# Entry
Amino acid sequence: MHIRSAMLFAVALSFPGAAVAQMSRAALVKQSDIIFIGTVTQVGAVAVPEVPPSDRTVVVRVDQVLEKPAPVALTAGDSVTVETARAGSLKAGIQATFYTTGWIFGRGVAVREVGHEPGQSPVVTADAREAVARARALVNDAELKAHIQRAAMVVAGRVEQVRPAELAAAPTRPKRITEHDPDWQEAIIQVEDGIKGAQAGERVVVRFPGSPDVAWVGAPKFAVGEEGTFLLHKDSTTGSPRTMIAGRSVPTYTALHKVDVLSKQDATRVRALIKKP
Amino acid sequence: MRVGVIAVGVALFAACTGSERQVPPAKLAGGRVVDLIPLSLSGETWQDAEPFLALYAANPKLMAASAFTPNPGGSASATAPIFVSDDGGDSWTLRNTLPSESMTADITHAVGGNPPMLYAGILKVPDFPLNELKANDFLSPATMTLQAFRADIDQPFVRTSAVDNADRVYVGLNDFDAPDGRTATVDVSLDGGTTYTSRRIETRNTAGQNGPSIRPAVAQDHTVYVAYFGWRSNAGADVTSDVVVVRDDSGATGATPFRDLVDPSDHLPGRLVATHVTIPWSNAPTLGQERIGSTLAIAVDGQHSENVYLAWADRVGTGDIYTVHVRRSTDRGATWSGDLRTLTNATDASLAVSANSSVGLLYQQVTGPAGTSRWVTRLEQSRDGFATHQDVVLATVPATTPPFQFLPYIGDYNCLLTRGNQFLGIFSANNAPDSANFPQGVVYQRRVDFPTHRLLDGSGAPVAVSIDPFFFSVPVLP
# Structure
């Protein structure tokens, strides 16, 4: 709630006159993966045969792409089918910044509107690129801050050892052989900077899936010598949340989200976000 | 030690098969191969492995396909995509209709009767529970409806049949919560997925579990066969297994289904087609960057349910890494042939039997010397139990590039189906646009430059080679 208020406040300061109905630009950006400036050319129509026309579909000529996933082929001059949030909200000739999510990918792109901001000039176009970039930075910071708040420990450090995890056997749950087995490993991290919940000089154990299986493709893997800033969560995944270091029983942590492993240089940004109200 | 054995195996195999590549593969009239990645995703570089295909009997234009293709929106997406075609496979679009974050961890699907429902079994991201799903209209952008779910499941494999106004759905799966380590299971729905009942099909002791592949096949007279690996013991990475087929003669509608085929050796349900085979279980890049251990397929002649074909892979132990075997029964599984086909260093065998009783065998095989080895995807057809067969090379692509992003590299399975006078299927392979790699020809939807063998993104910039799913159709032998 606090973060959202801050974001809304920041957006309001940046764009006091912007006609963003109901939602802040940051909120629009957060829900969008394809953002572009375009001009409505047809209403109740579609640009590709794969999409049925309706009173909610419009064809938009792309004037400038502001954000898109790398695989998506979308450039200025393309015609995009947009399913609008509500029928009749856009008329032919209107130029706007469209905040959208991918819907159907075929010969062309069809998207679903999250929202739009009207804009009618090259000056506004230039501003929009910068505004969207600022909003995306706000969203990324807010998401990272939420991850930091959920983390039990945040440290900057170096992986000094990787070893197979020896999980205590669960008597009611025998080990299963499956291609999705995570093959839990343990990375022992020498803490150089205890940012949250740890102190420099500590050694902490992070469990991670060593498996190359598709189920774990998004989970960070650790290697000896790797340095970074690590957002660590209490191990509630492996079913055996303790391990041994030098004869001592210690708790284990996990870092399963890609945001949980950042560069060493990101420690400064993380500290700043922690301090930020 | 294991690496050494594998390297020697590859070298021996290369020495034996090197000369086979001197003759260019033939082009078959009427065959086609289509890369599924649409034009608007020309920049994609993901490893789109483990493809699967579903056909609509009621409308030959409509098809659905899947692979480990992520939602283009990225890892934060709440849905995962399927591909659909409404023109018989000539073009495909991608739609985000699966309730799984960005991608699935397993997916298969099949079509019911009228109206043409699409049923899917997925392992959902995150946490990988089984989701049994249904879509009343696969062209709809709506998220598929969840019908049943539970945890601790592997490799859901969906088959369907239409009976009057209710679809029957059979989901073969490995259920780790099954009692006594007899994990081979078929979730059976007799009411279009409204309710499912888990039917345990293993009747013998296991090594604590069965293998992950549990494969149903349904004939028009509602005979249901299911093939599975009866894991009996394991030592290190090798599992000793039986290859078992069960049968139900009434669509698994009875109280104790899948008991209609008994083995003469112990009088227990489940015919032991092969016993004590060695399954090399390797979740590492072992065969052309692919893992191995779960290749299993079964197909029944839809109109003559006494004819059933079975394929599995094991390690024979004579320099091979992984060997596919194909056998046939002509008496409802009571007796089985010896190997009709024995294919060294092959995987991803899929079978289908056409309306004129031709059998199709799709498989992917590593050939050539280690440094320049190739994945060769073949469709073989036979009308005489493989005494003779027609061999069609669908693709022959480098096996060493691109490097794997995850496993499976091309898939723990692919898919072969049949309709009318066509075999229709899907496989995954290196997507370099080189005509020499696709002897039957190939159609790309995504942007490519054939003269330079380059993939291009929307702006014309080069795109790295990756693994794509390829749909194909080949005429059935007359």
Q: What stands out?
A: The longest helix of chain B spans residues 2-17. Chain B touches chain A through 61 residues (CB under 8 Å). The CA atoms of residues 112 and 127 of chain B lie 28 Å apart. The two ends of chain B are 49 Å apart (CA to CA).
